[in-house]
């Protein structure tokens, strides 16, 4: 299995609804999103997918400088964001997993069974 990874950063605000702690307060993160795409065979000229094509597709779905609670109809936890980004990309790319970092210490990822 070949795997490639692209990583992009975006800034956004959110509040976690019904969390019961300080994350219910409006706050922001400089998120990092990592997308891993895999394939057992390479496409000509010897790539899983073109890095630039994947980076552009990821950039298009990132809610940069947005209030996530106004953009999505789900509670914008890192877990839910990872799944949402996966679902947005999986029709175009053989996505293995999506990882969303809220900061250097914490990430959540989605990878289907
Ligand atoms: Zn947060």
Characterise this structure.
- There is one protein chain.
- 24% of the residues lie in helices and 35% in strands.
- By secondary structure, it is α+β, with helices and mostly antiparallel strands.
- A five-stranded mixed beta sheet has the order 3-1-2-4-5.
- A hairpin with a 5-residue loop joins strand 4 and strand 5.
- The two termini are 16 Å apart.
- It binds zinc ion.
- Belongs to the PTPS family. QueD subfamily.
- One of its GO terms (biological process) is tRNA queuosine(34) biosynthetic process.
- It catalyses: 7,8-dihydroneopterin 3'-triphosphate + H2O = 6-carboxy-5,6,7,8-tetrahydropterin + triphosphate + acetaldehyde + 2 H(+).
Question: What's the arrangement of secondary structure elements?
Answer:
Elements lengths: L1 E13 L12 E13 L11 H11 L4 E2 H4 L6 H12 L5 E7 L5 E4 L3
Parallel strand pairs: 1-3
Antiparallel strand pairs: 1-2, 2-4, 4-5
Bound molecules: zinc ion.
Zinc ion binds next to strand 2.
